[in-house]
Design brief:
Length: about 290
């Protein structure tokens, strides 16, 4: 019943969904003190804005864009195939994907919590197969909704588990493509403390381990949300792998976020200390790369 309702709502224009989402984003910001506090703290501490007036203006835009990110899932996950395909109205940098394919060592797609990150894999799998990692939600009833939304065309989903990691290795060893969120906070033992916008953030080691084990290309992708519900502009950029580590990965994410800071998910609890993980280093210290705990 729920999936049927979502598919009906997906027939609405994207501009309508974005308008409703923006209103929802502002409402949640107003009624949830904890949400608002985390959003403000992460945004203001990042240094992407300066001065109270500029930061307040950006803060309101961030709240609206976060709401759009929720509402647009209806269109992206449950719209008809032809409608979803038309949502990607522009793309630059696809040539780096073709070049990486020609080298035959696999591709790691890294997509931050920026813009419509769900659109990245759905654009990619219209062209080529891809295996995407997902973390099962705390609410069990949401998992089949998430899997249904992400499983179309040439997409395969793998849970964030040991089995999922093994699937990723096998896929890359056969020259395939995998996708993950590089700024997702990992569990204890799966990360190292590295600066992210000047603050220690427990950063996943998986992308680096996969690249070093397979020699795969690493491609950063950002699906920019266009105004007026016009769709999305996808940006592909290959990252250097000669000195690829967790610090380099975080710097690459920061560079993308600075392009459109209002579209980053600043409310995400990026700086949490996972249960069982070592404590972060002091804010006055700066440590980078593998093993700096």
């Amino acid at each position: 019943m729920l999936l049927y309702l979502l598919r009906v709502l997906a027939r609405l224009p994207l501009s309508w969904l974005h308008a409703a989402g923006a209103a929802l984003g502002w409402l949640v910001y107003r009624v949830s003190p904890s949400y608002a506090a985390r959003l403000r703290e992460n945004l203001y501490a990042s240094g992407v804005c300066s001065g109270d007036a500029q930061c307040r203006k950006l803060l309101l835009a961030v709240a609206a864009e976060a709401g759009k990110g929720i509402a647009e899932l209806i269109a992206v996950w449950f719209g008809a195939d032809d409608k979803v395909a038309r949502l990607a109205v522009a793309c630059d940098g696809w040539s780096v994907v073709e070049a990486a394919r020609a080298r035959g060592k696999g591709i790691i797609i890294v997509t931050p919590h920026l813009g419509c990150f769900e659109m990245v894999s759905l654009y990619f799998v219209q062209q080529l197969p891809m295996t995407v990692m997902y973390r099962p939600p705390k609410l069990a009833w949401l998992e089949p909704v998430m899997v249904a939304g992400r499983s179309r065309w040439l997409a395969t989903v793998a849970p964030a588990s040991l089995g999922g990691v093994r699937t990723f290795y096998r896929t890359l060893q056969h020259g395939g493509t995998v996708g993950l969120l590089p700024d997702q906070a990992p569990g204890a033992g799966e990360g190292v403390w590295v600066d992210f916008f000047g603050r220690p953030a427990y950063t996943m080691t998986l992308a680096v381990r996969l690249q070093r084990a397979t020699g795969a290309a690493v491609i950063m992708v950002f699906a920019e949300r266009l105004p007026g519900g016009r769709g999305y502009h996808l940006h592909f950029e290959e990252l250097p792998t000669a000195q690829f580590d967790e610090a380099a990965l975080n710097r690459a994410v920061e560079a993308q976020v600075r392009r459109r800071p209002e579209q980053y998910l600043w409310s995400y609890n990026r700086y949490k200390v996972p249960a069982g993980a070592p404590k972060p280093y002091g804010r006055g210290e700066r440590r980078e790369g593998r093993g700096e705990t």
